[in-house]
What we know:
Elements: H1 7-39, E1 51-57, H2 63-75, E2 80-84, E3 99-103, H3 107-115, E4 119-124, E5 140-145, E6 166-169, H4 173-185, E7 191-194, H5 198-209, E8 219-222, H6 231-235, H7 237-245, E9 249-252, H8 258-261, H9 263-272, E10 279-281, H10 288-293, E11 296-299, H11 304-311, E12 316-319, H12 338-346, E13 348-350, H13 358-367, H14 372-382, H15 389-413
Parallel strand pairs: 1-2, 1-4, 2-3, 4-5, 5-6, 6-7, 8-9, 8-11, 9-10, 11-12, 12-13
Amino acid sequence: xxxxxxxxxxxxxxxxxxxxxxxxxxxxxxxxxxxxxxxxxxxxxxxxxxxxxxxxxxxxxxxxxxxxxxxxxxxxxxxxxxxxxxxxxxxxxxxxxxxxxxxxxxxxxxxxxxxxxxxxxxxxxxxxxxxxxxxxxxxxxxxxxxxxxxxxxxxxxxxxxxxxxxxxxxxxxxxxxxxxxxxxxxxxxxxxxxxxxxxxxxxxxxxxxxxxxxxxxxxxxxxxxxxxxxxxxxxxxxxxxxxxxxxxxxxxxxxxxxxxxxxxxxxxxxxxxxxxxxxxxxxxxxxxxxxxxxxxxxxxxxxxxxxxxxxxxxxxxxxxxxxxxxxxxxxxxxxxxxxxxxxxxxxxxxxxxxxxxxxxxxxxxxxxxxxxxxxxxxxxxxxxxxxxxxxxxxxxxxxxxxxxxxxxxxxxxxxxxxxxxxxxxxxxxx
Length: 430
């Protein structure tokens, strides 16, 4: 009798195996880097002193997540270090008195620095702590995760948040997802704090103060996620062909990770559909202008859907891509994803069979009454405390760092345990 493993379980086991192998490889690499460092007689002067608060960003595109937090810490006179893996991160050009921004190198060089960092509290939006290259430093007391999307917290790649100490949530529904993952994986409970969404607050403030958009042709933005379940992987050039047939102006904005993980596929599509008067490919680090310009968005399960619908209050189409949960934390949970419960309420589904009628569907969405009530409900579920996130994140970091310092001071004041006096050896008889 042959042993049968269903595809989902097989995928999960393969992911776990790859994770274990990857952990072993990077643990050995970390040991090698440390040995080479100490044998060379070097010393890391920049990390010789412990940082009160550290912030790590693996890409310049997350400056919109962290800038308001840095501004708030600066306003309160709290010292912090901002460590970035992007040499051209906008943070490096911003002048602060209390925030020091530093490029630590990309890839393994940056992670090697983080793995030996000294800090009371570290804030990051990067998943995968203690899974691959990025290991918990024994000299960092508390790791805090700040999401960079307002949809399901379980849509990170598997084990993405398991080894953080705390997670700052954008919406109350995310707490249930974290607690469910902890139960099924027998993990200790993390500290969870509802703070809202920093970059959505900043985006809304920019929108409120921006000048009106000049008159322009009807513009459709295609902004998918990445991976085998995303639009461009599933539909390829068929959806671009259908968009061009509408006669509308088309902007294609791939997920930044696609240019790394799906480079061959994207390169082929960009050669097949080059920039023209009707079509443009967008790679701006800041997506504010392209979201403001677009009249309607087509996406899949990308968090940009909720930026567009909840901040800009515009209609969306979401593609039916037969989402595969197996690479994600969501695979471990039986509950339906919040994203897929919410999408039918705030937008219109687009299937491959409907591509021939794409113009008609777009026109209906643009002219039909807005799904205002559904968007308002989704906004309440996914975006807590609008306008307050930066303050609440700073509050949490400062309170946690102060608590760590207090605990250390109390521990230092405790008297050492009295040791038993050594017994005197009896003199040997003469």
